[in-house]
Amino acid sequence: MKEEWFPLVNEEGETIGKATRRECHSGCKWLHPVVHLHIFNAAGDLYLQKRSMTKDIQPGKWDTAVGGHVDYGETVENALRREVREELGITDFKPEFLMRYVFESKIEKELVNTFRTVYEGPFFPDPEEIDEGRFWSRAEIASQLGKGVFTPNFENEYRKICMLGAQFK
């Protein structure tokens, strides 16, 4: 398998170096960029993916519709379009930038570039990445927060999106 290289960035997203995926996920806490896309339908429900049980991070948890790393030499916008195509088979969507923030876990530190779009389907989830996907209402999400159903990063980001008023219609 080909070695994956990620850009190392500062908090403004400017590239200051590069490192392998393994290095970025080794606990060294080198800041590297990722993209997230929240997909809403016209009713304001949010599409979530259930992470494959084979994933090394948060397997089997519900998460943002699309999330992935930016490759070294790739723009955030190109990474977003690539990840959406790879994970859900979607090529025709209009992303709207919401926010950028730093997320840190035990093994990594990410500069998360968050976008939203309105899209009704169809979806073609990659079975190697996603066990299932579906739209969730705000009430359904609220009833499951803090119960270990969602990834911690999704819960954190969902609360930020609600505070921004980046909605749900």
Structural class: alpha+beta
Mean pLDDT: 93
Number of strands: 9
* Helix percent band: 10-25%
Number of helices: 4
In total, the number of domains comes to 1
Low-confidence stretches: none
User: What would you report as the Rg, rounded to the nearest angstrom?
Assistant: 15 Å
CATH class descriptor name:
Alpha Beta
Give the CATH H-level superfamily: Nucleoside Triphosphate Pyrophosphohydrolase
How would you characterize the largest beta sheet?
7 strands, mixed
Overall 3D shape: globular
CATH architecture: Alpha-Beta Complex
| Order of helix and strand elements from N to C terminus | EEHEEEEHEEEHH
What can you tell me about this protein's structure?
The chain is an alpha+beta fold and 169 residues long. The protein has one domain (5-164): Nucleoside Triphosphate Pyrophosphohydrolase. It has 4 helices and 9 strands, in the order E-E-H-E-E-E-E-H-E-E-E-H-H. It has helices at residues 21-24, 76-88, 138-144, 152-164, and strands at 5-9, 15-20, 31-40, 46-51, 62-64, 66-69, 96-104, 109-118, 130-136. The strands form 2 sheets. Strands 3, 4, 5, 6, 7, 8 and 9 form a 7-stranded mixed β-sheet that branches. The longest helix is centred in the middle third of the chain and has 13 residues, at 76-88. The model has no long low-confidence stretch (mean pLDDT 93).
